Amino acid sequence: MNQHIAALKFITSCLSEDDLCDYLRELRKLSKERNAKLQAQLLEVVRQLNRIHIAPVLLKSAMHLVTDMHGDRGARIMNDIDLLVPKEKIDECLTALHGLGYESDEDINNDYHEDHHHSAPLFRPGDYGSLELHRSLTESPYVEILSTGIGLAEAQPLELQGLSMKVLSHTHRLLYNILHSQLVDHNYADGIIPLRSLHEVVTEVGANQERIDWSTIRCRMEQHNRGSALRAYLYMTHKLFGMSFQEGMGKTLLSRLYYQRCCA
Q1: Which of 91, 89, 84 is nearest to 134 (CA)?
Q2: For residues 102 and 104, what is the distance between their CA atoms, to the nearest angstrom?
Q3: In 3-state terms, what secondary structure has residue 216?
Q4: Chain-centre distance of CA 256, in angstroms?
Q5: What tens digit of pLDDT does each residue of 45-78 get?
Q6: Helices 227-241 and 214-223, interaxial angle, to 10°?
């Protein structure tokens, strides 16, 4: 985040208000064009996986390529596509995608062993983004907070242009976001404010508040001694985006002190 703030300060110091608005409009336009290309890429991959009777679960930003939760296709800047498939089918899925011309970088293959939560990223010349096939939702020691089996079992079906895919339930999408942002990506330990993922949660809550089971999210985090990471995260959504506190997860002294640490 510090790098992003420094870059923004540099840009704003060099541009007038009108020039800055023009810059942001152009950035949004380019993001919209890129996401249209990524959507076509995603649908081609889903079609190929459907041929071997696999309906992948769209993770992270992939879901936004085929839904309209943000209301603006250029709002989220993306560079890859993340899909969850059954662990026992991943080799079959990789073979199918090789048939579309996707290959992994041999220099990094050894970094993605069978216990890694996703395979080595796949690339294809001319594409706008890489492709990652996930065999599990997360990695040890966080797998018990959100198990892949439960995520797959409760995933919701989604169809577009006759293609079959799935998305995580509303509750699991929020838990997955918080889990990855705070713990897997080490933002909580490093004192980083993850603006994009915070905005994702605020947008999801604004669109689907009544479908989110906050008690499940709280229980799963607290059962594994991660309640402080959850409370700190939700405190930041309130301070930065004005999101209301959820019942039983109001502001605490530790959350306020953590936020001050991040700002410092």
Answers
A1: 84
A2: 7
A3: helix
A4: 26
A5: 999 999 999 999 999 888 888 887 666 777 778 8
A6: 140
